[in-house]
C-alpha cells in the first residue's frame, strides 16, 4: 500500500465558509489561485509567495469563477449574472510592498457582462463564454461572445440551448450546482490555449470522440461541451456544428459532481482514452471506446462502478481520481497496478480486469478531513503530487502525496490468490442464488409500494390541480365549542377531515393543522406565532372521515380571528417505514404538502352567549355591569389610569333591509332578529359554533354574551330609517357595545366579514350613489388629516393613543351604510 | 376638499417625477442596464397606480388615474408583459364605467371600451380614454388578435382624425400649468403612428393572398411617416403579395424599393433570390445570393436597430407568425451553401468551389458567427464535404478532392455498421410513422457518406488515369454498398425514388445511384485496361441498378463494340441518342449524379462508327 503519509500544510485561513455561494479553488494566471469561500468574495492567492494578493468584493454570492484563455479576463458568476474583471487590475502596479496587504476591489454592476438569472456554472471555450442556468422549466446553456475590445461592454448573446427538467421538483438552489467541461478531438487544443493544461478542458482520443459524438463532430473538429446536471444527466453539445442541440449521453441518476478524462494507455499520447463522471453518492461511470467492429457501429463501453460516497468534490490527474467525502480525502487509482501493462497485453486480459466494477474502484484513504474544494494536482520534479484544497473551516491547504514507486504497484497481487479453487466458485454461485431469491421478494414489495404510490399520485393530482376557490374532494369541516377543564375555559376546534374522492388515503399521510392568530397581545411581543398540530392517520377510504380536536384559544385570550390552515402532508419516510428507507433520501424531496381549505375562527364564533336581559331593563344586569366595570377598571389601571369612569365603546354597521331580504331569503317581518341569528349561526369561515340555540325573546333583538377576553358584549339590531337623498330607506343597524375596545373591534370586524360574504352572494352590480360617497370620502380625508396630525404632533407629548382612539371611534360610529 | 386636492397633487407629482425620470433614462445606450431600469419603472408606476386605485373611482381623480394607467401599461408593453397590461386596461375601463354609472354587464373588452368611450364623449377625459384604447390596440396587435383590431377600425380612424386637434390642445394646456397635468411617458400621437403602420404590416402579412385590396392598404401605409425599416417592410409585403398574384416582375420592383428605403432589409434580397429561382434566372439568383451573403456578414444587419433610444420598439408589435416567416432569412452559412450549390449546378464550377472552400473554412474557424442558428437548413457536415469534393472534382482538382474524401472516410469508417438491414418501407411507414428518426446519423447515412467518398476518390483516380487505383476505390465503394440488405424478400428494388418516402426515399435513391455510378466507374476503368469481360459485367450490373445512367450505357455499347458485338452495340447507342446526359439537379446530392468527370466517348465518333456499321 502507500508508503508514508501525505503531508498537509496550511497556507491561509479564510474563515468559515458561507452558505449562499459555492466553495471553489481554481487555478488562475501563472501561480495565482482563485478562492471562493461561499460568500461574496473572490480571493486571489499566489501559490509561489503564499500570500493573499487581492480580494474581489462581488455584489452577490459567487457561484463560479473562470479565466479566459488569454488569461486577461476573469469571469465571475453570481446570482444576478456574470461579471468580468480584468486580471491586470489584480496585479499591483508597482512592486508589491510587503506591508500594504492585498488589493481590495469592489465590483459593481458596471462590470456585468451577461444577465443570467441563477447562473451556476461557467466555461470559456476559445472566445465563447458559456453559462449554465436553471430556469423554471429547463436547464439552459447560453453562449456569449467575449468582447475583445473593451471588457466592460456586455457580451453578445450567440445562442441558447435548453434541456427540459426531468421533474419540476424543488431543489434547493445551493444544491443545483452543475459541471461544465469541454473535450476536444485528439490533441487539437484551441490555438489560443495557454502552455499549461486548462482545467475543465480535456483532449480526447479521436476514436472515443468519434464514437461518442458522431462523425459530424469529428469532421468539424468541434469542441464538445459536456454538462453534468444535478439530476444526474450527462449531456453534450458540439459547439461548431450548425443546428446542433443538447443531447443526453448518459444518466448517473444522482447529482453529477465531477466530470474528467484520463489516459488509459501509454499509446494515447496525451489524449484521454476514458471519460469519467462521478455522482454525489459515489456512482461512477467510465466511458471508453470498445474494440472496432465488435458491436457493429457504436462501440462505446459504459462501465459503471461505485466508490464510497458522498463525493463532495473531486479532481484527477492522468490516472488517479482524488475525491473528498467531507470526512476523508480518498484516492482511486483507475487502472491500478497494471496501467503500464494493460496496453500491451491482449485485449482479453484487459476486458476481464475491467469488467468487474468492484475490482477497480477501491479507494485509498489519504487521511485529510473536511475538504470541500480541490484544485487540479500539480507535480514536482521529483514526482510528488501536490493538491490544493479548501477545508470546511476555510483553510487553504497544500497536500503533498508521497512518490509512488514501482514496487508498490507490483506487490499488489499476491501469487497465492491466483489459483482459485472450484469450491469458491460454487459457493459464490450459491450466494448469488440466495441473493436472487431475496431480490424477488424485494421486487414484490416494491410493486406493492408502487401501487400505493399511484394512489398518492392520484390524490396529489386531485388536490393540487384546483384553485383555492373550488371545493376540494378532500377537505376539512370545523366546529368550535367552549369547554371547561381545570377551572379554565378553552375554545376547542373539532376538525373533520372528509374524503370525498374515490381514492384511499393510505399510510404516510398526516393531517397538519396550523393555528395562526391574527395578532397577539402586545405583552407577548406583538408577533403572532402559529401553532402546528399534526395528526398522522392511516387508511381513510372514500366517503370516510376522521375527526380531530384541538384547542384554539383559552378564555382571556383575545387574539382573534384565528386562521386555521389545514393541509395534508405526505412523507416518504413514513410511507416506506424504517427498513425500506435505507437509501439516502433528501429531506425535501421525501416530503410534500398539499394544502386543503382554510378555516377562520373569529370573535363571533368565540362569543359565549349569556341570557338575554329582561326587556324592561334597557341596560344589562347589575352583575354584568359590575363585571364589566371591574374588568374595564382593570384594563384602565393597567393602561395607566387615565380615564376615571368605565367607558363604553361601540361600533355600528347599517345594512339595507332589502339587501338582507334578498340575500338571506328572510321573511319581510323581522329582519333584525334573523340577522342576529344568521350572524351567530352561519359560519362563514367554514366553522360552526355549537350552541344550544340562540335565545332571543320574540321581538327583542338584543344578544348579550361574553367575549373570549371575558368582557361583556352586547349586540343589538334595530331598524332605522335613513334618509338617503330623497327616498327613505329602511336599514337594519347592528350595534356592538362593550367596555373592551378589543371586543368591539373584533366583533365589528367579524360582522363586516360576514356581511361582505353576504354582499358577494347578493351580487355586486349595484349603483353606488356618488353624493354619499363623496361625503364619505371627505370624512375619510378629514380623518386621515387627523391621523397625520396625531402622528406628527403626538409623538412628543404622548397624545397619540387617545387621539388615534378617538379617530377610530369616529370611524366606527359613523355607520357605514351597506346597500 | 383641500385634503383631497393635496392627495391628488402629491400623486400627480409622484407620477411626473417617475415619468420625467423615465424620459431622461431612455437615452442610455447600455442595454443590459436598460432591462433592469425598465423593470424598476414599471414596478414603480404600478405601485403608484395601486395606491390610486385603492379608493373608489371618482371623476376628480380620473384624469390622473388614466394617465398613470397609461404610463404603467406603456412600461408593461415595453417589457412584453401584454397580459398584465391588458388586465389593467380592462379594470380601468370598468372603473370608468363605475364613475359614469353604466353597467354593460360583460367583461368583453370591446363592449367595455365602446361604452366607456360613449360615456366620456365631450368631456376632458375623452382623449385620455382614447390613448388607453390605443394601448389596448397595441396589446391586441402584439397578441395577433386581428379581429379585435378590425372591430375597432372605426374608433381607430376616429382616433387618427382627432389625434391632431385634441392632442394639440393637450400640448397647449401643458404649457399653461405645468405641475398639475400628469405627464405621459410616451406621446400618444407617436404611439398611434407606430401602431398604424404596424397594423398595416401585420394585416398585410396575414392576408397576403387576398390580392389588390391588401396591396392598396400597404401602398397607403408606405406613405405614412414612420421609421425606414417599417416602410421597407410595407414594400416587402407588397412584393410578396404581388408574387402571390403571379406578377414576379412587379414583385421584384417592390423588393428593390424596399431595399432602397432601408438597405438593411435583407429579407427583401432573399425574397428576390427566391423569385429569381422561380423564374429560373440562375445568373440573377446567384448574384442576389452573393450580395445577400456579403450583407449578412456585415455586423448588425441581423439586429434591427430600430429600438434604439425608444421605449416601445416596433418589433414588439410585429410578432405574427406569418410575418416572421416572411421576414426570416437563413443564416449566412446557409446562404453561402445555396450559393455554392447553385454555382456548381449552373456550371460556374470555379466560383462554386471558392464558395465551398469558404464555407468549410467558416465552419472550421474559431469565429462562431452565425453557426448557432436555432434551426439550421445546412446539410450535415460530411455531405458538405462530399459536395465540395464533387465540385473540386468538376474543377479538375482531384488531389484536393481526395484530401476532403479522406477526411470523411477517416471520421466515419470506424463508425460503420457490419451490415444495414432495411425493412420494407411500406411496412415501416405503417408501423413506425409516429416515431421520428431522432438519430439522424444512423448507420445507413454514415455508410452512404463513406461510400460516396470512395466513389469520388475513384472518380479522382480515373481522372488521373490511374485505372488500377480507380478500380480499387470503386470496389471499396461497392463492397460498402452491398452491406445494405432488405428484410422483406418480396420487396423489389425498383421502388426507391426521391418523392415516395421522404425519410428514407432519398437515401435509398442515393444508394441505388451510388451503386450504379460505382459499377459504371469500375466498368469504365476495366475497359480502359482492356479487361473487357469484367467491364461488360460491371456495366451490365450498373444498368440494372441505375437504368437512367447514360455514360454506363454508352460505355456498354463501346465495350460490346470492342468485343465485336457490333449490332448490339449499335442498338445500345441508338437508345442513348434520345436522352443526353442530364444536367445536375438539386433534388439529389451532387455527388450522387453523373459528373462527366471520367473519360468521355465522343458522340460524333460513335455516329461515325454506326455509319460504318450501317452499310455493312
UniProtKB/TrEMBL annotation, chain A:
<dbReference type="GO" id="GO:0043240">
    <property type="term" value="C:Fanconi anaemia nuclear complex"/>
</dbReference>
<dbReference type="InterPro" id="IPR029251">
    <property type="entry name" value="Faap100"/>
</dbReference>
<dbReference type="GO" id="GO:0005654">
    <property type="term" value="C:nucleoplasm"/>
</dbReference>
<dbReference type="GO" id="GO:0036297">
    <property type="term" value="P:interstrand cross-link repair"/>
</dbReference>
<protein>
    <recommendedName>
        <fullName>FA core complex associated protein 100</fullName>
    </recommendedName>
</protein>
<dbReference type="Pfam" id="PF15146">
    <property type="entry name" value="FANCAA"/>
</dbReference>
Automatic annotation (TrEMBL), chain B:
<dbReference type="GO" id="GO:0043240">
    <property type="term" value="C:Fanconi anaemia nuclear complex"/>
</dbReference>
<feature type="repeat" description="TPR">
    <location>
        <begin position="451"/>
        <end position="484"/>
    </location>
</feature>
<protein>
    <recommendedName>
        <fullName>FA complementation group G</fullName>
    </recommendedName>
</protein>
<dbReference type="InterPro" id="IPR039684">
    <property type="entry name" value="FANCG"/>
</dbReference>
<dbReference type="Pfam" id="PF13176">
    <property type="entry name" value="TPR_7"/>
</dbReference>
<keyword id="KW-0802">TPR repeat</keyword>
<feature type="repeat" description="TPR">
    <location>
        <begin position="232"/>
        <end position="265"/>
    </location>
</feature>
<dbReference type="GO" id="GO:0036297">
    <property type="term" value="P:interstrand cross-link repair"/>
</dbReference>
<dbReference type="InterPro" id="IPR019734">
    <property type="entry name" value="TPR_rpt"/>
</dbReference>
<dbReference type="Pfam" id="PF13181">
    <property type="entry name" value="TPR_8"/>
</dbReference>
<dbReference type="InterPro" id="IPR011990">
    <property type="entry name" value="TPR-like_helical_dom_sf"/>
</dbReference>
Amino acid at each position: 500500500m502507500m508508503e508514508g503519509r501525505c503531508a498537509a500544510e496550511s497556507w491561509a485561513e479564510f474563515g468559515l465558509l458561507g452558505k449562499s455561494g459555492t466553495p471553489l479553488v481554481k487555478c488562475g494566471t501563472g501561480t495565482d489561485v482563485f478562492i471562493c469561500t461561499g460568500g461574496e468574495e473572490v480571493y486571489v492567492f499566489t501559490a509561489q509567495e503564499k500570500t493573499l494578493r487581492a480580494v474581489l468584493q462581488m455584489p452577490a454570492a459567487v457561484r463560479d469563477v473562470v479565466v479566459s484563455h488569454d488569461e486577461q479576463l476573469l469571469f465571475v458568476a453570481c446570482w444576478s449574472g456574470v461579471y468580468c474583471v480584468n486580471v491586470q487590475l489584480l496585479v499591483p502596479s508597482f512592486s508589491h510592498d510587503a506591508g500594504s496587504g492585498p488589493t481590495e476591489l469592489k465590483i459593481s454592476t458596471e462590470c456585468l457582462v451577461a444577465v443570467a438569472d441563477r447562473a451556476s456554472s461557467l466555461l470559456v471555450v476559445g472566445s465563447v463564454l458559456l453559462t449554465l442556468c436553471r430556469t423554471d422549466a429547463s436547464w439552459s446553456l447560453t453562449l456569449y461572445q467575449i468582447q475583445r475590445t473593451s471588457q466592460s461592454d456586455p457580451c453578445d448573446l450567440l445562442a441558447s440551448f435548453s434541456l427540459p427538467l426531468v421533474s419540476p421538483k424543488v431543489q434547493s438552489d445551493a444544491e443545483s450546482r452543475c459541471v461544465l467541461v469541454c473535450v476536444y478531438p485528439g490533441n487539437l487544443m484551441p490555438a489560443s490555449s495557454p502552455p499549461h493544461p486548462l482545467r475543465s478542458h480535456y483532449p480526447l482520443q479521436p476514436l472515443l470522440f468519434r464514437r461518442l459524438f458522431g462523425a459530424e463532430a469529428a469532421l468539424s473538429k468541434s469542441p464538445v461541451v459536456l454538462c453534468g446536471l444535478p439530476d444526474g444527466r450527462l449531456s453534450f453539445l458540439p459547439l461548431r456544428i450548425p443546428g446542433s442541440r443538447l443531447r443526453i449521453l448518459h444518466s448517473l441518476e444522482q447529482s453529477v459532481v465531477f466530470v474528467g478524462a484520463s489516459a488509459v494507455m501509454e499509446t494515447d499520447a496525451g489524449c484521454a482514452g476514458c471519460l469519467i463522471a462521478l455522482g454525489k453518492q459515489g456512482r461512477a461511470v467510465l466511458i471508453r471506446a470498445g474494440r472496432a467492429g465488435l458491436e457493429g457501429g457504436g462501440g462505446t463501453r459504459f462501465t459503471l462502478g461505485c466508490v464510497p460516497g458522498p463525493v463532495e468534490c473531486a479532481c484527477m490527474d492522468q490516472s488517479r481520481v482524488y475525491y473528498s467525502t467531507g470526512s476523508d480525502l480518498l484516492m482511486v487509482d483507475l487502472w491500478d497496478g497494471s496501467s503500464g501493462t494493460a496496453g500491451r497485453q491482449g485485449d482479453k486480459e484487459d476486458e476481464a480486469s475491467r469488467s468487474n466494477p468492484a475490482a477497480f474502484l477501491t479507494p485509498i484513504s489519504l487521511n485529510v478531513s473536511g475538504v470541500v474544494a480541490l484544485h487540479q494536482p500539480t507535480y514536482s520534479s521529483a514526482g510528488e503530487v501536490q493538491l490544493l484544497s479548501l477545508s470546511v473551516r476555510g483553510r487553504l491547504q497544500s497536500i503533498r502525496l508521497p512518490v509512488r514507486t514501482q514496487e508498490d504497484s507490483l506487490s499488489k497481487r499476491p501469487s497465492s490468490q491466483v489459483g482459485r479453487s472450484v469450491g469458491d466458485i460454487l459457493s459464490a454461485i450459491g450466494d448469488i442464488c440466495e441473493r436472487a431469491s431475496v431480490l424477488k421478494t424485494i421486487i414484490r414489495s416494491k410493486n406493492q409500494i408502487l401501487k400505493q404510490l399511484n394512489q398518492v399520485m392520484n390524490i396529489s393530482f386531485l388536490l393540487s390541480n384546483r384553485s383555492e376557490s373550488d371545493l376540494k374532494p378532500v377537505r376539512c369541516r370545523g366546529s368550535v365549542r367552549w369547554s371547561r377543564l381545570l377551572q379554565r375555559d378553552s375554545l376547542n376546534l373539532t376538525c373533520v377531515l372528509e374524503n370525498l374522492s374515490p381514492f384511499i388515503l393510505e399510510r404516510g399521510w398526516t393531517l397538519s393543522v396550523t393555528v395562526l392568530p391574527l395578532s397577539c397581545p402586545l405583552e407577548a411581543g406583538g408577533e403572532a406565532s402559529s401553532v402546528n398540530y399534526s395528526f398522522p392517520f392511516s387508511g381513510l377510504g372514500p366517503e370516510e372521515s376522521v375527526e380531530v380536536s384541538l384547542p384554539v384559544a383559552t378564555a382571556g385570550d383575545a387574539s382573534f380571528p384565528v386562521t386555521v390552515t389545514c393541509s395534508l402532508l405526505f412523507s416518504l419516510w413514513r410511507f416506506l417505514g424504517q427498513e425500506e428507507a435505507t437509501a439516502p433520501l433528501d429531506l425535501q424531496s421525501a416530503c410534500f404538502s398539499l394544502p386543503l381549505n382554510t378555516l377562520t375562527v373569529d370573535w363571533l364564533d368565540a362569543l359565549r352567549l349569556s341570557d338575554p336581559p329582561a326587556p324592561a331593563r334597557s341596560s344589562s344586569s347589575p352583575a354584568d355591569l359590575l363585571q364589566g366595570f371591574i374588568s374595564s377598571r382593570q384594563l384602565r389601571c393597567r393602561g395607566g389610569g387615565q380615564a376615571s369612569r368605565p367607558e363604553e365603546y361601540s361600533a355600528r354597521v347599517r345594512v339595507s333591509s332589502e339587501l338582507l331580504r334578498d340575500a338571506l331569503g328572510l321573511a319581510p317581518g323581522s329582519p333584525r332578529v334573523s340577522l342576529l341569528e344568521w350572524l351567530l349561526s352561519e359560519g362563514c369561515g367554514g366553522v360552526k359554533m355549537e350552541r344550544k340555540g340562540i335565545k332571543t325573546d320574540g321581538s327583542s333583538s338584543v344578544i348579550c354574551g361574553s367575549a373570549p377576553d371575558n368582557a361583556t358584549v352586547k349586540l343589538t339590531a334595530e331598524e332605522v330609517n335613513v334618509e338617503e337623498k330623497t327616498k327613505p330607506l329602511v336599514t337594519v343597524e347592528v350595534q356592538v357595545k362593550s367596555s373592551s375596545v378589543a371586543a368591539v373591534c373584533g366583533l365589528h370586524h367579524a360582522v363586516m366579514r360576514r356581511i361582505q360574504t353576504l354582499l358577494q352572494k347578493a351580487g355586486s352590480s349595484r349603483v353606488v350613489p356618488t353624493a354619499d360617497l363623496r361625503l364619505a370620502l371627505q370624512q375619510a380625508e378629514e380623518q386621515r388629516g387627523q391621523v397625520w396630525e396625531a402622528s406628527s404632533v403626538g409623538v412628543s407629548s404622548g397624545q397619540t393613543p387617545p387621539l388615534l382612539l378617538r379617530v377610530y371611534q369616529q370611524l366606527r360610529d359613523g355607520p357605514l351604510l351597506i346597500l | 376638499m383641500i385634503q383631497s386636492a393635496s392627495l391628488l397633487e402629491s400623486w400627480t407629482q409622484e407620477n411626473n417625477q417617475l415619468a420625467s425620470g423615465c424620459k431622461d433614462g431612455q437615452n442610455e445606450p447600455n442595454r443590459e442596464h436598460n432591462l433592469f431600469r425598465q423593470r424598476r419603472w414599471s414596478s414603480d408606476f404600478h405601485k403608484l397606480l395601486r395606491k390610486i386605485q385603492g379608493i373608489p373611482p371618482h371623476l376628480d381623480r380620473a384624469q390622473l388615474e388614466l394617465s398613470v394607467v397609461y404610463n404603467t401599461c406603456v412600461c408593461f408593453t415595453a417589457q412584453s408583459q401584454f397580459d398584465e397590461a391588458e388586465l389593467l386596461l380592462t379594470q380601468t375601463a370598468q372603473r370608468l364605467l363605475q364613475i359614469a354609472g353604466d353597467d354593460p354587464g360583460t367583461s368583453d373588452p370591446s363592449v367595455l371600451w365602446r361604452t366607456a368611450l360613449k360615456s366620456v364623449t365631450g368631456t376632458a377625459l375623452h382623449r385620455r380614454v382614447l390613448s388607453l384604447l390605443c394601448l389596448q390596440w397595441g396589446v391586441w396587435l402584439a397578441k395577433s388578435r386581428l379581429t379585435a383590431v378590425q372591430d375597432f377600425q372605426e374608433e381607430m380612424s376616429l382616433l387618427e382624425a382627432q389625434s391632431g386637434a385634441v392632442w394639440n390642445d393637450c400640448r397647449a394646456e401643458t404649457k399653461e400649468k405645468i405641475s398639475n397635468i400628469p405627464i405621459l411617458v410616451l406621446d400618444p400621437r407617436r404611439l398611434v403612428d407606430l401602431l398604424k403602420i404596424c397594423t398595416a404590416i401585420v394585416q398585410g402579412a396575414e392576408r397576403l393572398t387576398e390580392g389588390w385590396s391588401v396591396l392598396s392598404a400597404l401602398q397607403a401605409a408606405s406613405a405614412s411617416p414612420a421609421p425606414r425599416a417599417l416602410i421597407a417592410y410595407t414594400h416587402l409585403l407588397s412584393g410578396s403579395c404581388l408574387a402571390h398574384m403571379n406578377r414576379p416582375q412587379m414583385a421584384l420592383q417592390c423588393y428593390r424599393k424596399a431595399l432602397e428605403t432601408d438597405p438593411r432589409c435583407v429579407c427583401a434580397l432573399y425574397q428576390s433570390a427566391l423569385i429569381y429561382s422561380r423564374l429560373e434566372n440562375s445568373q440573377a439568383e446567384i448574384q442576389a445570393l452573393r450580395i445577400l451573403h456579403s450583407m449578412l456578414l456585415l455586423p448588425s444587419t441581423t439586429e434591427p436597430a430600430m429600438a434604439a433610444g425608444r421605449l416601445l420598439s416596433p418589433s414588439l408589435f410585429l410578432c405574427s407568425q406569418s410575418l416572421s416567416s416572411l421576414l426570416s432569412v437563413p443564416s449566412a452559412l446557409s446562404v453561402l451553401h445555396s450559393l455554392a450549390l447553385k454555382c456548381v449546378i449552373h456550371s460556374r464550377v470555379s466560383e462554386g468551389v471558392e464558395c465551398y472552400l469558404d464555407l468549410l473554412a467558416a465552419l472550421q474557424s474559431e469565429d462562431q458567427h452565425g453557426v448557432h442558428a436555432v434551426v439550421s437548413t445546412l446539410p450535415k457536415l460530411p455531405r458538405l464535404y462530399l459536395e465540395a469534393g464533387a465540385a473540386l472534382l468538376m474543377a479538375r482538382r482531384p488531389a484536393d478532392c481526395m484530401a476532403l474524401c479522406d477526411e470523411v472516410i477517416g471520421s466515419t469508417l470506424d463508425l460503420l455498421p457490419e451490415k444495414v438491414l432495411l425493412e420494407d418501407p411500406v411496412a415501416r411507414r405503417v408501423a413506425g410513422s409516429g416515431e421520428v428518426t431522432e438519430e439522424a446519423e444512423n448507420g445507413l447515412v454514415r455508410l452512404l457518406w463513406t461510400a460516396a467518398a470512395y466513389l469520388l476518390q475513384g472518380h479522382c483516380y480515373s481522372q488521373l488515369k490511374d485505372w488500377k487505383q480507380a478500380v480499387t476505390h470503386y470496389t471499396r465503394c461497392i463492397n460498402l454498398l452491398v452491406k445494405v440488405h432488405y428484410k422483406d424478400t418480396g420487396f423489389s428494388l425498383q421502388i426507391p425514388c426521391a418523392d415516395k418516402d421522404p425519410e428514407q426515399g432519398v437515401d435509398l435513391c442515393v444508394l441505388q445511384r451510388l451503386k450504379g455510378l460505382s459499377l459504371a466507374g469500375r466498368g469504365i476503368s476495366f475497359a480502359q485496361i482492356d479487361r473487357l469481360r469484367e467491364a461488360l459485367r460491371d456495366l451490365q450490373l450498373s444498368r440494372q441498378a441505375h437504368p437512367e445512367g447514360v455514360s454506363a450505357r454508352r460505355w456498354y455499347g463501346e465495350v460490346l463494340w470492342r468485343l465485336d458485338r457490333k449490332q448490339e452495340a449499335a442498338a445500345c447507342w441508338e437508345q442513348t441518342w434520345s436522352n443526353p446526359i442530364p444536367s445536375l439537379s438539386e433534388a439529389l446530392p451532387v455527388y450522387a449524379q453523373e459528373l462527366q468527370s471520367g473519360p468521355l466517348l465522343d458522340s460524333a465518333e460513335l455516329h461515325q462508327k454506326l455509319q460504318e456499321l450501317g452499310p455493312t
